[in-house]
Amino acid sequence: MRRLFVALGISGLVLAVLSPQPALSTGARLTAIAAASWQTNASVLGLAVAKGKVYVGGRFTTVRPPGAPAGTREVTRTYLAAFDERTGALDAAMNHELDGFVWAVVASPDGSRVYVGGDFTRVDGLVRNRLAAFDTATGRLVANIAPQVSYRVKALAIGRNSLYFGGSFEQVNGVTRNRVAAISTVTGALLPWNPDADDDVYAIDVADDNSKVYVGGTFSTLRGTDHWAVASVNTSTGAALPFPAASAVPLPNDSCTSRVKDIETSGSRVFFADAGDGWGCFDGTWAADVATGKLLWRSNCLGATEALAMVDGWLFKGSHAHSCPHTFADGSGTHFLLLQNPATGALGPWFPNANGGPPTLVGPLVAVSGGSDLWIGGDFTEINGVGQEGLTRFTNFGPGAAPLTPPAPALSSTRVHRVNATVRASLDNDDIRLTYRLLRGRTNTVVAATTVSSSFWYRPSITLTDTAAPSGTTQAYRIEVFDGHHVVRGGYATVRVR
């Protein structure tokens, strides 16, 4: 709660089966062309949107304008900054000095506050042990939000008047709270909520109806009872609730340790991101029903998944996916930015890309949406092959990406008045269904047309036929591709018509 496809049913479980040919015919509302955004000089680890601003936390110590190379035009921002959500411009007023990394950022439901968690112990010289809050109207610290957390805070979530947080700590205000705790957002007081995890908590979120809290990480028990990597717990006490979908995360063994890295709740569904150690270890996403706790689908793409966000009806995932069953395999390379159908887990029509930089080499690590935009932070240094470090954003403004220019077609004429033109399907990073037209002569007369699905992992051959070519003449043909906004035309090829 951070503000097509073939389904195979097995014992109440719905698995997303991704066919080689994409089934979605609609374009993604997000364009695949990144909007101008400031950059950071190191990783972004936390993001939140509030009152028209995007709050950004991480390992960085400076930020710089769009297009500026590393080391140039830098402005000091120690681990926390804010930007205008609409323009991407730096918010000069949000300028605080923290003495340690920020690992998590979350906004209150009304946008009046932003909470940050991390490694810091001071903010502007004032004691703030790993957790602090800022008033978004003034940019100032909130005085009564100052719990004494003994070690790193890595995850934050808000449910009604409670701020839930997880990490690596063992005490809050001198009271034992192993890796998870909650305080009142009204008074700042420590709450009784106590799931008591035996190892680190990486992710936490609250169901939209406030019926339960989800926690994820590397723990194996809560309150001494077995719960590997994920659990659903009571919002008041922290006691574990029935959650059969937890079986989606395999139990660890000598060759595989899979853990939950992010959680995103949205209405009646909750989504989880996993990363695994070991080749073939579960690295994908999965979804559960909030009311019943049952597993809805499980997507088995390899390549650690670190970030989830719901944007305009789609589930975004940031990962370094390199092998997805029934879709792309290792030969199609690593893809860091993808959309999934939240009902099935199948991949959607949006294929921009990033890269993976140090220290994680994963690339995208966190994401947030203000409704119709998508902000992404992480370790990347490039977006769509262009330099962009740490932070980027995508919007629904503009016509989006254009299809790749098709090559000149391969032509043949084996029957009177007929010419066959064959070309490999084009690729468009925010449209799956493209229209292909066969153009004859220098007047570009349309003589045939078809609409075909394609994606970066599936680009079939397309054959268009001119059935009325002038017999006994030499004709020139080219292919035109249309995505609803852009028209691109390839080069000519010639053939003698029978």
Automatic annotation (TrEMBL):
<dbReference type="InterPro" id="IPR011047">
    <property type="entry name" value="Quinoprotein_ADH-like_sf"/>
</dbReference>
<dbReference type="InterPro" id="IPR015943">
    <property type="entry name" value="WD40/YVTN_repeat-like_dom_sf"/>
</dbReference>
<protein>
    <recommendedName>
        <fullName>Pyrroloquinoline-quinone binding quinoprotein</fullName>
    </recommendedName>
</protein>
<dbReference type="GO" id="GO:1902929">
    <property type="term" value="C:plasma membrane of growing cell tip"/>
</dbReference>
<feature type="signal peptide">
    <location>
        <begin position="1"/>
        <end position="25"/>
    </location>
</feature>
<keyword id="KW-0732">Signal</keyword>
